[in-house]
Amino acid sequence: MPLYEHVFLARQDLAQAQIDALAENATKILTDNGGKVVKTETWGLRGLAYRIAKNRKAHYVMLDVDAPPAAVAELERQTGINEDVIRYMTIRVDAHEAGPSAMMRKQERSERGDRGPRRDDRGDRPDRGADRDSGRPERAPRAEQEA
Question: How far apart are CA 125 and CA 33, in angstroms?
Fold first, then answer.
């Protein structure tokens, strides 16, 4: 059977239990039509790039699906009807990603605080005026100008 990734965005005012119920409903639709959900990931409440139906944030959920095209078409039909889902996208993939998705790895990294060392502004950056040659004489420090 073909492999798909189905991502949907649910309204920001829903509780986590309602988000889980939406994911279970999608799983049930797929299993009733001869498919199966390999993996479910909840990416959490995230900000949107632009407002969608008066929502500035949305709950993101991704399903890795192994199902016939008819099952995916039924899932998309049911998802389009649901008022709690503001956007969805299903794409066909050659293989499912092993382990957590890039979004989950990003969340884990930010939770652990795995950021590189901060750049020290005193020594890492060259002097901004050192390589300029504008032909103008350099200005004297303010104390000398006033004297």
Answer: 60
SS3 53: coil
Which domains, and CATH codes, for the chain? 3-112 (3.30.70.60)
Tell me, what DSSP letter sits at residue 139? Answer: P
What DSSP character marks residue 95?
S
- pLDDT tens-digit readout, 72-99: 999 999 999 999 999 999 999 998 888 7
Where are any strands of DSSP class E within 1-142?
Answer: 3-11, 36-52, 55-66, 85-93
Q: Spell 82-94 as b/e; 16+ CB within 10 A means b.
A: eebbbebebeeee
